[in-house]
């Protein structure tokens, strides 16, 4: 596995570049403009000094201790295990800070992201309707 280093995001300009992050270019700068509170924040993912992706938490854990993660790989870095490394690091942060479960949502079809979640021992829970994203697949990984 790649050695991915996560550091709290400083609203890196690359996150607004559609060539690097696709459709998220219009949303990430707005998301990152909201004050971030560690550890439940957004992170820039690097290999050495090279920015390779983004990952973060959708907020702090809920009253049950569940926290949701999201991640993306910059387009030039895809296919190298970056998303897997980001997801693993986020899971480690969540459980080190007393989360009881880590949740993730994907589009309702098999994709690179569903493969990442399976490799990170997430279990498919089922389909649900998300107010922002419509129909999604829900995944969960419980603390061990």
Question: What topology does this entry show?
Answer:
Blueprint: E1 5-8, H1 18-21, H2 28-33, E2 42-47, E3 50-57, E4 66-73, H3 82-96, E5 101-106, H4 112-119, E6 123-130, E7 134-142
Parallel strand pairs: 4-5
Antiparallel strand pairs: 1-2, 2-3, 3-4, 5-7, 6-7
Could you give a quick summary of the protein structure above?
By secondary structure, the chain is α+β, with helices and mostly antiparallel strands. It has four helices and seven strands.
Explain what this protein looks like in three dimensions.
Strands 1-2-3-4-5-7-6 form a seven-stranded mixed sheet, covered by helices on one side. It is globular and about 35 Å long. It has four helices and seven strands; from the N terminus they run E-H-H-E-E-E-H-E-H-E-E. 23% of the residues lie in helices and 34% in strands. The chain has helices at residues 18-21, 28-33, 82-96, 112-119, and strands at residues 5-8, 42-47, 50-57, 66-73, 101-106, 123-130, 134-142. The chain is of the alpha+beta class and 144 residues long.
Could you name the ranges where pLDDT drops below 50 across 5 or more consecutive residues?
Answer: none
Q: Approximately what portion of the residues adopt beta-strand conformation?
A: 25-35%
Strand tally = 7
What value does the average pLDDT take? 94
Key features of this structure:
144 residues, alpha+beta, 7 strands, 23% helix
């Amino acid at each position: 596995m790649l050695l991915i280093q996560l550091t709290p995001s400083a609203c890196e300009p690359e996150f607004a570049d559609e060539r690097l992050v696709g459709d998220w270019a219009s949303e990430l700068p707005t998301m990152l403009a909201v004050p971030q509170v560690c550890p439940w924040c957004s992170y820039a993912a690097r290999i050495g000094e090279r920015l390779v992706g983004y990952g973060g938490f959708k907020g702090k854990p809920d009253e049950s201790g569940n926290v949701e993660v999201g991640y993306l790989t910059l387009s030039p870095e895809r296919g190298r295990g970056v998303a897997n490394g980001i997801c693993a690091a986020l899971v480690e942060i969540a459980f080190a800070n007393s989360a009881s479960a880590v949740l993730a949502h994907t589009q309702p079809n098999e994709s690179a992201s569903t493969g990442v979640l399976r490799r990170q021992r997430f279990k498919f829970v089922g389909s649900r309707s998300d107010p922002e994203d419509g129909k999604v697949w829900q995944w969960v990984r419980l603390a061990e």
